[in-house]
Amino acid sequence: MTIPLSARDHDYLRRAIELAHEAGRIGNLPIGCVICLGDEIVAEGKNAIWVPRVELYRHAELEALRALPAELAHRLSEMTLYTTLEPCLMCAGAILLHRIGRVVFGATDGYGGLG
Length: 115
Prior knowledge:
Blueprint: H1 7-25, E1 32-37, E2 40-46, H2 60-67, E3 79-85, H3 89-98, E4 102-107
Parallel strand pairs: 3-4
Antiparallel strand pairs: 1-2, 1-3
């Protein structure tokens, strides 16, 4: 389902794209993610599956979820997760388990996303 995005949504997707570029520059897949609560970015993550060592579970979304401050755990349903690529099944499961309220992704993934 396509829902029109706000200017703020575009700003957060741009930050996720910056993180994707950082990941790509060092040899990882260029995927970035930010998690926001209201107008504040509360966690960020970028793909780290190849560098510094092979750890295939280190997807951008999981890295961002791991970076969430524990004191915000009671507000997860109020958060929005922005990612540059449609989450894979593993990441989608983690997002659901965390009860993140909203997910926005920049591009669909024809090779294994949820679409």
